[in-house]
Design brief:
149 residues; alpha+beta; PH-domain like; three-stranded antiparallel β-sheet; 3 helices; 22% helix
Length: 149
Amino acid sequence: MAKTDRLSEYVNEQPILWHDRRRYFGLPISFTRYSFDKDKFYLKKGLLNTSSDEILLYRVLDVRLLRSFWQKIFGVGTIVLKTADQTTPLLEIKSVKDSERVRTALSNIVENERNEKRVLGKEMFGAAGHHDVDLDGDGVADHIDTDLY
């Protein structure tokens, strides 16, 4: 008689809808990998020392696309997710291919997840609280007051 694995019933793997790596000069030569399914966004970094993070998509508050001149030349862009997640309040999905399509898909999936879970945006703002994040890259944490949004 085969022994059943009780953990298997809790592992609910969804098909991955999109995946890419951070790109340098348009080439996927990085060890930073991004992907998402219909419920979660996944971030994996590293080769020898690795870290993995996942964000529930219904907790995303805002989706923003940034494309510099050089990113436009190489056909990539950076998507910024502002979330109500405690560990990752601001996630930059840096230099990914087809960034406009990915941003649109993420935005639509976030709305679908919120509607499915019956979560309103104003409920998420309270969950986000106040965060200190280095938004401009100057090494000094900038205070985000989510009550103002």
